[in-house]
Amino acid sequence: MAAGLALLVVFSLGVQVGNGRIAVSFFSTTKSENPGLPAQLDYVSVNQVYQTLKQNYNGKLTTAQLLDGLKEGLAEATKDPYTEYFNPTDAKAFQDSLNNSFSGIGAELGKDDNGDLIIVAPLKGLPADKAGLRAQDIITSINGESTTGMSPDIAVGKIRGPKGTQVKLAVVRNHSDTLSFTITRDTIQLPSVTSKIVNDNIGYMQIISFSDDTAMLAAQAAQQFKQANVKGIVLDLRGNPGGLLDAAISVSSLWLPGGKTVVTEKGTTGTQTYTATGDDPLYGIPTAILIDDGSASASEITAGALHDNGTARLIGEKSFGKGVVQQLIDLSDGSELKVTVASWYRPNGDNINKQGIMPDQTVALSDSDAKAGNDTQLTAAEAYLTSQR
């Protein structure tokens, strides 16, 4: 991420990825989809607005505030929820979130097709999850401030704060129930992968995000499974908003022989196909992947790659549907621009943007079951793996 150009498959909170879990690849833009635009914009009318505000606005304004607003407006003019301008402060927060280290509530934010601010996924075991927030909850206010027109990244900045302080959220669930939550912020720093061997010698691997430590931790878990001679594997990607593309490729390569297609990107940067790396310790072991509506971007890349290559069965609920690629450009003043430059495609050729991935076996997890600790989806995965022996 220290490089000037980083391609981001933002796999958030549809993500948008509100607090920054995105997929990253590196290559330069080679052509433009907008050759008809002028080399420079005519700022005469913009300056008229500026002079009018300067002389008539009943309030304090700063030069930095106005310039940030101008840059944000250019990004918003695309009408693309994934193209955004980050001022230096927001850019730093965005980068911190990529490292899985920040103080907040532990939830990925994004927007739905109606432009509502939503919870893409509350990360398991963190304050938002413990308080009872669910994927697809619509956030209507933060500390009493309406979220109408608010971008996910601005909302993240308002939700985060010092450890031990509280934030109040008003949400609408299922487009009908109005709920209120007061959540105490905490330090969010978790390993991205946890694993164990569960009932009847089945390996269980949960990935909460595709981060810098994911490839290493997933490889360690794979070796433990191999040494234990597990008879099946559950890969739990529920509530995983995505992350680094390299990590998704590394995880997929644990199951896929070298050369098998993981994902293909097509856009202004051309076409690039990413393939498995050739180290496949889990190849041939029956595998079930758990997905839900909080599984986005890099999670969907991994689920699609393993499913389409015939190495895994998908169980749970339809995934989020984040199938576009963003390029992150570092600007000279420390700010950043995240702009959509491509779409990504599964090995079977499908683009899942706004469509998601349908599981082979649909299994719902109700609120009552979740509260009771009755994981119907995990039970279904274990039953499937047992049947494969």
Please give a handful of descriptors for the protein shown.
2 domains, 2-enoyl-CoA Hydratase, Chain A, domain 1, 7-stranded antiparallel beta sheet, 6-stranded mixed beta sheet, 389 residues, disordered N terminus, Pdz3 Domain, alpha+beta
Structural class determined from secondary elements: alpha+beta
From the N-terminal CA to the C-terminal CA, the straight-line distance is 44 Å
Helix content: 25-40%
Spatial shape: globular
Largest sheet: 7 strands, antiparallel
Query: Rg to the nearest angstrom?
Result: 21 Å
- Return the domain count: 2
Number of helices: 10
CATH class of the largest domain: Alpha Beta
Mean pLDDT: 87
The CATH homologous superfamily of the largest domain is termed 2-enoyl-CoA Hydratase, Chain A, domain 1
Pick out the low-confidence regions. Answer: 1-30
Strand content: 25-35%
What's the architecture of the largest domain in CATH terms?
Answer: Alpha-Beta Complex
Compute the number of strand runs. 21
The CATH topology of the largest domain, please?
2-enoyl-CoA Hydratase, Chain A, domain 1
